[in-house]
Amino acid sequence: MKMLRIETPGVAHYAYVITDGAEAMVVDPRRDVEEYLNAARSLGARIRCVVETHRQEDFVMGSARLARESGASIVNGDHELFGHGDVRLPDGARFQLGGLTVRALHTPGHTPESMSYAVHTDDSGPAWAVLTGDAVFFGTTGRTDLADAERAGENAALLYDSVHDKLAPLADTALVLPAHGPGSVCGSGMADRPYSTLGEERRYNEVFTLDRGEFARRKGAERLPRPPYFRHMERVNLGGGLEPVLRPGSVPLLDVSTFATGCGDKLVYDSREPEGFAGGHLASSYSIWLGGMPVFGGWIGDEHSPIYLVTDRDADVDTAALHLSRIGIDNVQGALAGGFGAWRKSGRAIETSGVITPRELHEQREAFQVLDVRDADEFASGHIPGAVHTYVGHLPERGAELPLVRRRPVAVTCSVGHRAGLGVSLLLRAGFDDVRNVLGGMTAWQALDLPVER
Amino acid sequence: MKMLRIETPGVAHYAYVITDGAEAMVVDPRRDVEEYLNAARSLGARIRCVVETHRQEDFVMGSARLARESGASIVNGDHELFGHGDVRLPDGARFQLGGLTVRALHTPGHTPESMSYAVHTDDSGPAWAVLTGDAVFFGTTGRTDLADAERAGENAALLYDSVHDKLAPLADTALVLPAHGPGSVCGSGMADRPYSTLGEERRYNEVFTLDRGEFARRKGAERLPRPPYFRHMERVNLGGGLEPVLRPGSVPLLDVSTFATGCGDKLVYDSREPEGFAGGHLASSYSIWLGGMPVFGGWIGDEHSPIYLVTDRDADVDTAALHLSRIGIDNVQGALAGGFGAWRKSGRAIETSGVITPRELHEQREAFQVLDVRDADEFASGHIPGAVHTYVGHLPERGAELPLVRRRPVAVTCSVGHRAGLGVSLLLRAGFDDVRNVLGGMTAWQALDLPVER
Amino acid sequence: MKMLRIETPGVAHYAYVITDGAEAMVVDPRRDVEEYLNAARSLGARIRCVVETHRQEDFVMGSARLARESGASIVNGDHELFGHGDVRLPDGARFQLGGLTVRALHTPGHTPESMSYAVHTDDSGPAWAVLTGDAVFFGTTGRTDLADAERAGENAALLYDSVHDKLAPLADTALVLPAHGPGSVCGSGMADRPYSTLGEERRYNEVFTLDRGEFARRKGAERLPRPPYFRHMERVNLGGGLEPVLRPGSVPLLDVSTFATGCGDKLVYDSREPEGFAGGHLASSYSIWLGGMPVFGGWIGDEHSPIYLVTDRDADVDTAALHLSRIGIDNVQGALAGGFGAWRKSGRAIETSGVITPRELHEQREAFQVLDVRDADEFASGHIPGAVHTYVGHLPERGAELPLVRRRPVAVTCSVGHRAGLGVSLLLRAGFDDVRNVLGGMTAWQALDLPVER
Amino acid sequence: MKMLRIETPGVAHYAYVITDGAEAMVVDPRRDVEEYLNAARSLGARIRCVVETHRQEDFVMGSARLARESGASIVNGDHELFGHGDVRLPDGARFQLGGLTVRALHTPGHTPESMSYAVHTDDSGPAWAVLTGDAVFFGTTGRTDLADAERAGENAALLYDSVHDKLAPLADTALVLPAHGPGSVCGSGMADRPYSTLGEERRYNEVFTLDRGEFARRKGAERLPRPPYFRHMERVNLGGGLEPVLRPGSVPLLDVSTFATGCGDKLVYDSREPEGFAGGHLASSYSIWLGGMPVFGGWIGDEHSPIYLVTDRDADVDTAALHLSRIGIDNVQGALAGGFGAWRKSGRAIETSGVITPRELHEQREAFQVLDVRDADEFASGHIPGAVHTYVGHLPERGAELPLVRRRPVAVTCSVGHRAGLGVSLLLRAGFDDVRNVLGGMTAWQALDLPVER
């Protein structure tokens, strides 16, 4: 018996390949499925089932493609929201994976259709592990506001019951195998640990340490941004996800002139670090660092947007495009060959933007309007006194309502400077004159013990 | 029979692996010899000789190590300046490499000991190829000022004779296999082509198209910088080069605090692109872009200097250290783990520097002192009117003599912005207040048809 | 300007990527085009043209796919046999590739439509190189019997004229860049060298060293096998080749039981070395070593045959399938997971076959019938006295006519033992009782100075 | 917090890299430490401790080298048998790894110095995991006969107490992180599962399911071979292991003639599969399949033996040499370039050996002497009726005492055919006339339901 956990960076997603030595199941695969195929091959196993815990919202699933490529069946629950599937398991149903027994558990709350799967090494023994999808993460649960933000508390209570009725009875020694780790947009406050067990979770996970009412209240009060691409993900995942259109090397590298002609009024995503963007960038381009591409690329553009990429180096083009494709954004029409350096030496127009260190901002606090673009929970946990808040993803639509004056300097901050970089580029597009990225963000601010307001 | 040309980026160096199918020779290997060993292996051949055309000045040779690892003999000429070697060939001597015949030709001029090697597929036939070292490049020859800059013209005449007496008699169809391509500091004005023949060179190479006197005059008038690490290279190459001290992954990645403590008054090389450096950097660090490391790393530090690296990302650390090790700079004591981003979020002091576009500089020309840091030939071929000139490598020692005022803004330019970045960091260290990198340099300036002075 | 030669092993095919630094052409690409796309990318160039020298017969072209993926145009000649193409050049036409000039030369003889292309670095200068397709190889030319074996001599005369009229006038210094090297089935007797020039070829290539009549006679007398897959290649290449259906990892690895059920009366190709096959194999399987797959896989099966693979290890499956796909054989339905070792331990039936060393055969010559399965020219150049001859590819259809007795031992030989391995497996299928592979074949036989008949 | 388990194939060894996010410990590293360095780097962590559970016997440790390369301290127990170490922890001692607390537990029994280490995410909470070395494996414990085979039962009782006194009190939810998995020679009967917990082990591990007396009796009766290289491992591991002498590509590939001259009376290891060896091999060579190299290479040769390698292909040479180096066998003097195929075509002497299928053996049982070379426990669990037994590793010294007649056919069997291959080559060297490998071994025999004796 073998198990491999395969992580998708940027979206903090975990898929699992589990095999009894001959037959394998892949749980919650993403769209680019090569890594799972290779993993099964390296384990000497044949993929028999593609198992889904729920219809993912934050990435395009690879169930349909993986099933087609491997000849496997898609296995999920009998709730209609799954929308597809070869084997639709009701709560309590079992199936064999070679010598392993897998038991399906309906655990709604994160979403109505959510399933967990208990894996038993022998039919009569306790569960060896439980695949919890977004029901239980390490230290917390999945968010419960997706179906209807107004009913987040109610759904949290439902999730509480799912956990306590279906999962709690399993053995304390069962490994907990969730679909996400810290950094995912499907929850907040995940514990940073590599493996855990049900007994361990019982000790510190808020779904166990709080009572039902308190848990529902706390979850109901959570204010998490809902990325706009979630809707597209839900739609395509109804059918088992999308086939890939991307192949390494397939994004055209365009010379400066072709790029400049093409990108015109299209979206230009600049994947360099914030300092590089500050030191020079194309007018109207969006600063979205490489690691943030699979989230923020979907806040700015959507599946229909033609996108042009500016990178630090050509080798980043594939990474950026792959990140985008994982959230269904496939319309990348080209990247600047040679990276920003090629643009620089062409003599074409270059704009710069400002930076400011936390200490400088503190010393000149009066001279600046401060905009904090983290999410509401992060802002609530401590911010620069007097800072205005809006989540960076909401800036395009809500920016105009903010109490900020275009002709006065603005310092934009987030946790370390990446989201602030996107915020800076959005304010520049909105016509602000002097916009500065607070280098190092609140992490640096707090490392310097500068004053914080809560 | 097979031949592979193996390029060393940054120093534009070509080594060759040539085999008759069973026995191979490697010509002019660099210090990290794995690529040659693998090449011979992929060709199914055993390395019998490590052949040297001359004692290289611009990189550490790998002759001794490659010979040791492969059991091969080191073959070079009988001139004492080679300093080592198992087989010391006089002019005209031959040796067999399996079914191939190799003929040694003494072709001094670039350096006194320089050898060329004609390769014959059959003993009685014309040369199939000639390995020319730094004697003949595509379109030009090696520089002739290294032994004694005062006698560059005299050496050029000697080189002219070497070429005409020893190489010209070979077949027009002989492939010319030089040790360097465009971008090398061992010559200037190389033609940009992948392969050439002696007949082809006869048609357009200045050593053939000019007469002896004119050639000697032109070479004698060339003013090429002589990097300070050349002396160290010559010394270590006397003994066949150096063993490597570097292994991928062996440069310690230091957390911010350890890095900050350690780097103190040591050299900090920042390998990011100029815009990133402008947007934020450590005080007193040197801006040396990744591709420029194997040249400019040796203008700032030497083989004794403890060096600390700041990169864009951890994956660049090995590249930077490898580049430095190729010019004998092995004392890299650590790199900032997590790249500049880690420094940013620590709250530690960050400095910024300025940039300016060519058009802006043109429009505000009066407000700026302009410093051009390209080499003398590049400067002579066209520069911004009124620019002051010094080669970037000479800035540390000659900067103080420049007619530049510290309190007035300076715009620093080169060809595309990389060397100017180093120039900017040097002026900042020297106490200048406002230093700007002219983005895109003279390439952008000329693309915009802005006025040029010659 | 840069050039990369990209080799396809097994079919000894050379494609070229040539660029002036910004625009690239790819000449004669194979079906799996990723390597060309990556090469162009590494050279910082954009592919503008996919150039075809002729409609290849020995592999599936990638013109159509490469053009589609890169946005390039397909460029070839105006002869109708090309069957497709965006730009159809008449003899003598020129086109620009950035700063390079390319001149089209109609050079029929190998096939009626064959084109060569002279590449000039400047418009008025001599050719820097000439892409000769299958017109001129190193030391010889392409075969001239493909269109009509009866008219091979006539076509050879035509090819002779093409070479002397169109190519000979180019500069002696021009690099000759052919589409194949030694080992290709598109010619015989290629010289083993990595690079050559027109002047060099003039010295030793039979198309220059023989007179027209003698050349035509010699070529007319050549007896080269014509692989059956050539017809399929010609058909698909009429439209610019095929899209790939293969992706690394996509061949299903089947457990023993599934494999055994599936392979039934299908073709089973065993890619292990001859000794492994002799030591144990599946009944009725074909011994086709890995490197021989892209030729002999197409002698046994065709584009419609369902194929099952037995390998030494799983990592060979992709290689074998890729080799097959390059000759249009895409119907690989599965490979034995775990290689032959998995079959061995299942307890299923295993057959063995015999081997014999040359010395043993020599000593027991009387006891054996000897079958030599090399091609006619190889056989003519020297064989074991009394050996029967037929080309291995012709064994399935002509085997029954051979003067061999099924109940008497047969020793099968080729050059080193690979094709003999296939011959052994064919005779076993044909019901022979005792079949031995002469280990090391004629290479070993001759190394031992055993008697040879001519 | 992150954890990576790094497996060493062939010896079924698990090392662990555990980090709180900034500081890492590496537990029980092998000699070639690059993978650990890279792992720590990928986790963004600095290696602070190299932790040893005990002085390993079955592979060369990399503690000293890893400590030197990373600047880490070596941490182990205060028992004198460790022989070295920077920090020597007594039972119960704690240390901090950033935010993690590690508690040392002396758990003798497998060896006297054996330590376990409990890892706590917070100081006051239960153990999150326990590193058990060879004390506890999944389903069983380490063998207890190494120090003194006569006292195996006594040591088993000691180990029982260690487990019950020191480990049993830890939380049921603690992950069990052992140093070996199934296939290791440090124990027998490990359960095949990827992860387990203390509670899970409590349910089925024999150290928990048996009582003290029964456990001691069972372990005391185990008869496991003790590889001769264990002594060398223990000696070098006293000092923290060995520096590597191997670099990929550093084993000389020798042409046939050099190989033949060199190997003379030296050990020749043939790494091909048994069928390939049967089909042809060098006289007197040893058949040791690639995966068995890190065990059986050390039964035949020792750290002083000059070794020559014959492989299936050149790419296997590095793998074979790396496997050998991991058990301290560094004197690999060369490998046959081009694999066995090169030998085959040289015409040099080739020997063959026999194979037989289980069904054939069953049908001709009377004609064969049967030798079973598995270990005593495997033999006891079921063998071919009338088979003679000796462990393959003992054949060289005990072979002469076996009741086997040289002039009569012998069928050699093991579990699948690999060890039998080595057995075949040993009997051939001992002068047996007709030796056959039972293809598929007892696995195939039992799959066919052939009669078994117990």
What characteristics describe this protein?
6-stranded mixed beta sheet, Oxidized Rhodanese, domain 1, 3 domains, 454 residues, Metallo-beta-lactamase, Chain A, 30% helix, 17 helices, globular, homotetramer, alpha/beta
CATH domain class name of the largest domain in chain A? Alpha Beta
Global outline of chain A: globular
Distance between the termini of chain A: 50 Å
Mean pLDDT of chain A: 95
* Overall domain count of chain A: 3
CATH H-tier superfamily of the largest domain in chain A:
Ribonuclease Z/Hydroxyacylglutathione hydrolase-like
For the biggest sheet of chain A, the summary is: 6 strands, mixed
Question: Strand arrangement, largest sheet of chain A?
Answer: 1-2-3-4-5-6
What does this structure look like?
The structure is a homotetramer of 454-residue chains. By secondary structure, chain A is α/β, with parallel strands linked by helices. Chain A has helices spanning 34-42, 63-70, 152-167, 198-204, 206-209, 212-221, 229-237, 256-263, 274-279, 293-300, 315-325, 340-346, 358-363, 376-380, 395-398, 418-429, 441-447, and strands at 2-8, 13-19, 23-27, 46-51, 73-77, 87-89, 94-97, 100-106, 115-120, 129-133, 175-178, 196-197, 253-254, 267-270, 286-287, 307-310, 332-336, 354-356, 369-372, 388-389, 410-413, 435-438. In chain A, the strands form 4 sheets. Chain A has a 6-stranded mixed sheet, with helices on one face. Chain A has a 6-stranded mixed sheet with strand order 7-8-9-10-11-12. Chain A has a 5-stranded parallel sheet with strand order 13-17-16-14-15. In chain A, a hairpin with an 8-residue loop joins strand 8 (100-106) and strand 9 (115-120). In chain A, helix 3 crosses helix 6 (212-221). At the C-D interface, helix 9, helix 12 and helix 17 of C face helix 9, helix 12 and helix 17 of D.
